[in-house]
Structures are given as structure tokens and as C-alpha cells.
Amino acid sequence: MRVHIFIPCFIDQLYPQIGFSMVKVLRKLGCEVVYNNNQTCCGQPAFNAGFQEEAKEVCTKFITDFKDAEYIVAPSASCVGFIRNYYPKLFDNSSFHNDVKSLQERTFEFSEFLVNKLQATNTGASLHTKATYHDSCAGLRECKIKKEPRLLLEQVNGLELVEMNDVETCCGFGGTFAVKFEPISIGMADQKVNNALATGANCIISTDVSCLMHLDGYIKHKNLSLQTMHIAEVLAGF
Predict the structure, then answer these.
(1) DSSP for residue 112
(2) Do domains 2-116 and 121-235 have the same CATH topology?
(3) Of the chain's two ends, which shows fewer C-beta atoms within 10 Å, N or C?
(4) What pLDDT is stored for residue 83 in this prediction?
(5) What are the φ/ψ torsions at residue 13 (nearest 5 degrees)?
(6) Average per-residue pLDDT in the chain?
(7) Cα Rg, the chain, nearest whole Å
(8) pLDDT tens per residue across span 95-142
(9) Which CATH code is given to the segment(s) 121-235?
(10) CB count, 10 Å around CB of 58?
């Protein structure tokens, strides 16, 4: 299977190891991985900041860059959710209408692609620790991803997966929300981290690095003994 990967801004600039981990897993499962060097951003930051016309330019480039891709896989439910749910609104009644409809059907978050398209739940990974999983808002609400990450993590050798209370509650990041409403954002991170600690877990795992970045910042500020890992990093741990 030939798979085009999309690497989000956060990962490209701050967490490149997550992108490499995703490639490692896809190749192990028999995929031919293609990276288009022309790719930039999905357009979400500009759109969320209220710059719709500027966002539309970036989104148009994304559509063009991935026009010939059979499958597009990204290690970010946030980007995938934006493409699926907001591209149709941006390009409604435009010449890109059919291109966007096709793009929605071809774009996948990493964990859902493994489970629902490759029919793979065991990547041969090992991680000897106790961990809890955080459902990101984008993954849960925009991409309807719930069981897929858990099915994959349950097959990781040595990993004990435990559920935290209020697992579907937001971590408090929300992009610019964390900047505009800092006290509320910190309070939500506090709740999420304390719920994770209450399970006895040593690690929080998620599909979205933006959530993990926010939680990791809070954890380090409080000098807590808790690690954060993207699911691609876990599944690449052979």
C-alpha cells in the first residue's frame, strides 16, 4: 500500500521524532511511505485565529499537494479533524468541492489508519510501563476515534493500560485558548494530570502532540514524575 504522510507544524518544528516513528511503523507493516517535500500546513492555525481567506490559500495548497495521493496519513487527529470538518465549509459551492469530498475520504489519523485500513493492531512493540490514555477533543469529537488507539496499545508487550476518570474531558490546550484563557487552561491541565496520577500510571499517551505538549509543560512546571508519549512513539518501540 502506498501511503503519503502529512507532518503537522508542531511535529515538524518541535517533535520530529514522532514523524520518524510513524514512518517506522508504517514501513514495518508493509507500506510504501511517500513524503511530498512541498507540503506545508493544513491551514488550521490561521482558520482558528479568524483569518479565513488566508487559511483558504493554505488549504488550497494542501489540496493541490495531495491531489494524487491514494491515502494521506497524519499523526494528528487535530489536523485530520480540521480537513474533514472544515474544508467542506471553506470550499462549499466552489470548484474544489469534489476535490475536498475526495480528500475527506482519503485522509486518516495514524491510529485509525492502522486499525481500520491496514487491519493491524499488533505492531510488535514493547514498552514495560503502566500508562493511561488521553482522548483528545479532535480525536474523539471530530474524528470519532475511541477504540482504535486502545486496541493498538493493548497489544504492546509489557504495557499495562489503565483508564483515568473523566478521560473524555479536555486537557485545556485548545490552541490559542491556552493563551487567551491561561488560568482556565492551567486548571484543566491540573485536573487531567491529577486524574492520570490517580491511576498510578507513569505515562500519558495520546494521538495529539498539542495536548501532550500542554500537559508536559504543566508536569515539568510542577516537577511531577509523569511522562508523555505520542502513540506513534509507543508503537515504534520494537
Answers:
(1) H
(2) yes
(3) C
(4) 97
(5) -90, -30
(6) 95
(7) 18
(8) 999 999 999 999 999 999 999 999 999 999 999 999 999 999 999 999
(9) 3.40.50.11810
(10) 17
Which residue shows C-alpha cell 508542531?
A: 10
pLDDT at 54 over 90: yes
CA angle, residues 215, 220, 76, in degrees to nearest 5: 30
The three grid cell numbers given for residue 108, joined into one nine-digit string = 486518516
Q: What gap in Å lies between CA 56 and CA 180, rounded to an integer?
A: 24
Q: Any idea which residue has 493492531 for its cell? A: 121
- CA nearest neighbour of 228 among 152, 211, 186, 154: 211
CATH topology of domain 2-116: Rossmann fold (3.40.50)
Residue 108: beta bridge partners?
A: 73
Residue 40 has pLDDT above 80, yes or no: yes
What the block records as the C-alpha cell of 181 is 484563557
Q: What is the pTM of this model?
A: 0.94
**Helix ranges, 49-181 (H):** 52-65, 77-90, 97-106, 110-112, 137, 147-153, 177-180
Q: Are 99 and 63 in contact (CB under 8 A)?
A: yes
Band (238; pLDDT cuts 50, 70, 90): low
Query: Which position has the grid cell 493511561?
Result: 132
Q: What does the block give as the cell for 197?
A: 496520577
Across the beta sheet with 157-162, the strand order is 157-162, 126-133, 203-206, 227-230
Per-residue cell: 223: 516537577
d(CA 192, CA 194): 6
Which pLDDT belongs to residue 180?
A: 85
Domain locations along the chain: 2-116, 121-235
